Amino acid sequence: MKLSKHILILATAIVLFNCKTDKKDIAKVEEKTGYQIEPVDIQNVKVTDEFWLPIIKRVQEKTIEYAIAKCEEEGRLDNFLIAGGEMEGKVKGAMPFDDTDVYKIIEGASNSLISAPNKELEAVLDSLVNIIKIGQEPDGYLTTWRTINPAEPPAPWVEVKEGKRWEALFMSHELYNAGHLYEAAAVHYKATGKRNFLNIALKNADLMVKTFGEGEYKISAVPGHQIIETGLIKLYQITGKEDYINLAKYFLDNRGNPNNHKLFGPYSQDHVPVVNQEEVVGHSVRAVYMYAAMTDIAAIQNDSLYEAAINKLWDNMVSKKMYITGGIGAKHDGEQFGANYELPNLTAYNETCAAIGDVYWNHRLHNLYGDVKYFDVIERTLYNGLISGLSLDGTNFFYPNALESDGVYKSNRGSCTRQAWFDCSCCPTNVIRFVPSIPGLIYSKSDKTIYVNLYASSHADIDLNGEEVKVSQETSYPWNGNVKLTIDANSEITVKFRVPGWSRNEVLPSDLYSYADIYKSQPTLSINGEKVNTSIKEGYFEITRNWNPIDKIEINFPMEVRTVKANEKVEEDRGKLSLEYGPLVYAVEEVDNPKFDKISVSSNDEFTVQKEDILEGVNTITNRKLKAIPYYAWSNRGVNKMKVWLENK
Length: 649
Known about the structure:
The chain is α+β, with helices and mostly antiparallel strands. Helices cover 34% and strands 16% of the residues. It is built from 16 helices and 24 strands. The strands form 3 sheets. Strands 3, 10, 16, 17, 18, 19, 20, 21, 22, 23 and 24 form an 11-stranded mixed sheet that branches. The chain has a 7-stranded antiparallel sheet with strand order 2-6-7-8-15-11-12, with no helix packed on it. Strands 1-4-5-9-14-13 form a 6-stranded mixed sheet, with no helix packed on it. Strand 21 and strand 22 form a beta hairpin. The longest helix is centred in the N-terminal third of the chain and has 22 residues, at 52-73. It starts with a helix and ends with a strand. Mean pLDDT is 94; it is low at 9-30.
């Protein structure tokens, strides 16, 4: 993995002035997360899975390098050098948040380093960090377009009047840029122990603390696009500095407060105070990033008002505004949620970034409560509306993820299929940021309890209050529901094996969708060949015992082709059914179905499921009228028609 020669020379030269990348720890207060459940860190989980490992490796080995090259090609790296006076020129790129593409690549690559150490990649990240440092102003400010020429933002919708900092927070993305900087720096510090990137972030965060908040010389304002809040909280957890979490809380507390600033309105979730918000509205990415931060505050500060609000918001989203793929955000206009039950298919937005943000939020909620329903949402999103954003070759991307295509409507920002890049490339780099962290979703722990959240072949070393527990699982999930596990523990512990919602006859934890057919089978758990007579307790097989590594645990989640119907209030899906198999939502493409426009199904149809040598070896669903493929794999064979919802004959 290489940077171009001229970038590398500049990055190497600046190392002479920035050679301190010492690994001295600073105070950590990670115990102050407030969450009762802790994810098992990706450094302690080795994924060997035939489904997830190729996707993770594709990002690690191909997409990261591809994105760095694109960032260099389109001037995202040059902007830092121009801002710092190392190059001459005007700002390059079309978006005021182009800086964050570099930050997200570093974050994803750092997650990759945690699970797969790579000296060459680490050196590339050092070079990128050095380039970023060049663009930082002496007082810590870091938004390159504004430093280069504050009077000429790259996007016309950033309304600049006097060329001053912070004057256009609704769309300037100055605080959004900072949030991604903090998120990336926190992961890079965790991955490498180096403070070179962390120090850049802390210097910027200290500027934010001096600039915003209550006080005679401070600015009363909130971000236009949220994420600085979760970033500040991560810096608080690393350093223990209360100023950071206090500023995050200030930004949240003053949304919807007209006495603090001129309100941005529902688009930015800035219409009423966050504790009074009950319906998910506005730009969906902004929303879920904000809800994640609110969940952090609810956990860390035991804030009951925040907790009540996030529960109402989650219920509204999952009950009225979520696609069957787990996607969120119905409207291209404003990239935002629609009204309750407004879930169009051809014009669905379902931004990849929103799916990622929704996983981040639901993971926090599971850490707070341990309720199985949050991982039901995570699983549905992961296998369907999230990884659909990345092509099977790792270099093409969906920004929106439609549920129907006529081969004419250009749903993907001017294209009917995935694109190699975008002028607004937040989604490709967010995929890079997220995918290498997937191993951290598989297992969680709390006191004397281990949660098995997702089923993927893997090995985990878990520190359970000082006791080392080893968990291994082997499975071909999601292609079949057989899972084999071993657990090695020295004392009696509880293990909670999640029973997926689809295996409990539940599409989502709401009445937004339901199965139209009858599920004929039940999941089972056996140890050493003997079925364990245990009922499903709150969505888990929960077993407490002294685990022996020679014990062979087998779980079977029988998979059948299921037909799904939507709530009658979802107008576009009335009289239609969709197909599922295990956690996968299926779609039909014209390339497999010459009589595409005449396809229909019923809940009584009989289907055949078989492995095929297409799309890297997927299970297809067939009957005499159709062939369906997993939704995530659609549009990898050129432009053609597609639909998820089929006429109910």
